[in-house]
Amino acid sequence: MDLEMVLNDLSIQLPASSVPEARQLMEELIGTVILATSQGVKRIIRTDSGLDHLLLASDYTIAQWRNDSAVRQDMRTYFKSLTSRAPLLDGILSHELVDKNDMCQFFHESREAKGLGTAYLLDAF
To answer: How far apart, in whole angstroms, are the C-alpha atoms of residue 15 and residue 22?
Structure first.
């Protein structure tokens, strides 16, 4: 199967209400990715930009989560392997997709949805 995963940038716009909740959400995300990859989806997550600065909870970024000793080491390592090998969305769009993407804008509830739009154009997951 040649199916890829693209991070829905809108799903991370509202931070969790607490650090423990953010940890739980990241664990659920990784569990979902593990399940998807066991079914043949490529073991990468494509993103619009680097993730380190994104807030998971107030004053708690993905970079902090990756270095958080309260988070299982295997989870942190697995997530890093998913995102470090994947080129950013801008780096994977072929000329044909760039043309399509330039002619299209994707929105959800009045907010631009780059990840969802790229996933659609790439026929990704």
So the answer is: 8
